[in-house]
């Protein structure tokens, strides 16, 4: 799917904070964790918010990249992993889309609990806990990727 065919779902800092806190409420009801593993880079901000809420100070990272600038999934590139099987650890990422990243990380850390803020239908079965589902043809714009700018009034956009 090309970028222009996608629906847009921009997320503000405030909304992200509120939804990450909703995830923390859900997670605190599930159990206690040895620590958090953040999936870079998208999981870093959500992991910081959740670590603060759950009073967790032990934070590790799985460092990886897969998407190109035109929103197309590419090869998964693992830059840094973590040892062990993930038992007792909480993995945090911003979202699951196709589920490829989650599948890869779950194979590496099969006993960890995998949580994201957002989930699309294809990735949903791979995540243990999430808060908001959006359709598969929606692209989520996180606050660190966007800035406010002028847009045409709707009537003008319809005319052009
Ligand atoms: O379910 P998937 O189709 O695998 O997509 C989800 C992953 O894609 C994005 O990361 P990306 O690799 O783009 O890097 P980033 O976190 O640095 O933005 C996002 O943060 C998830 O980690
Ligand atoms: O919808 C998305 N938004 C931001 N990054 C992503 N990586 C995969 N899907 C998405
Ligand atoms: Mg990511």
TrEMBL record:
GO molecular function, one term: xanthine phosphoribosyltransferase activity
Keyword Repeat recorded: no
Protein's membrane topology: Peripheral membrane protein
EC number(s) on file: 2.4.2.22
Reaction equations catalysed: IMP + diphosphate = hypoxanthine + 5-phospho-alpha-D-ribose 1-diphosphate; XMP + diphosphate = xanthine + 5-phospho-alpha-D-ribose 1-diphosphate; GMP + diphosphate = guanine + 5-phospho-alpha-D-ribose 1-diphosphate
Localization of this protein: Cell membrane
Pathway listed: Purine metabolism; GMP biosynthesis via salvage pathway; GMP from guanine: step 1/1; Purine metabolism; XMP biosynthesis via salvage pathway; XMP from xanthine: step 1/1
Domain Phosphoribosyltransferase, chain residue ranges per copy: 12-149
Binding site for Mg(2+): 94
Domain of life: Bacteria
Cofactor(s) this protein cannot do without: Mg(2+)
SUPFAM superfamilies xrefs: PRTase-like
Binding site for GMP: 97-101, 139-140
Residue positions binding guanine: 97, 140
UniProt binding sites for xanthine: 97, 140
Protein family: Belongs to the purine/pyrimidine phosphoribosyltransferase family. XGPT subfamily.
Subunit structure: Homotetramer.
HAMAP family from the UniProt entry: XGPRT
Free-text function comment from the UniProt entry: Purine salvage pathway enzyme that catalyzes the transfer of the ribosyl-5-phosphate group from 5-phospho-alpha-D-ribose 1-diphosphate (PRPP) to the N9 position of the 6-oxopurines guanine and xanthine to form the corresponding ribonucleotides GMP (guanosine 5'-monophosphate) and XMP (xanthosine 5'-monophosphate), with the release of PPi. To a lesser extent, also acts on hypoxanthine.
Protein name: Xanthine-guanine phosphoribosyltransferase
Organism of this sequence: Dongia soli
Gene: gpt
């Amino acid at each position: 799917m090309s970028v222009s065919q996608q629906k847009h779902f921009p997320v503000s800092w405030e909304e992200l904070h509120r939804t990450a806190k909703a995830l923390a409420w859900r997670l605190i009801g599930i159990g206690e964790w040895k620590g958090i593993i953040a999936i870079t880079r998208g999981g870093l901000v959500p992991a910081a918010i959740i670590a603060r809420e759950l009073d967790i100070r032990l934070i590790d990272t799985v460092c990886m990249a897969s998407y190109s600038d035109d929103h197309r999934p590419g090869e998964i590139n693992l830059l840094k992993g973590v040892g062990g099987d993930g038992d007792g650890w909480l993995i945090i990422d911003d979202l699951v889309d196709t589920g490829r990243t989650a599948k890869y990380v779950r194979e590496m850390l099969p006993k960890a609990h995998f949580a994201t803020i957002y989930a699309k239908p294809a990735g949903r079965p791979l995540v243990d806990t999430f808060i908001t589902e959006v359709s598969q043809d929606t692209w989520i714009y996180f606050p660190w990727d966007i800035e406010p700018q002028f847009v045409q009034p709707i009537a003008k956009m319809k005319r052009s």
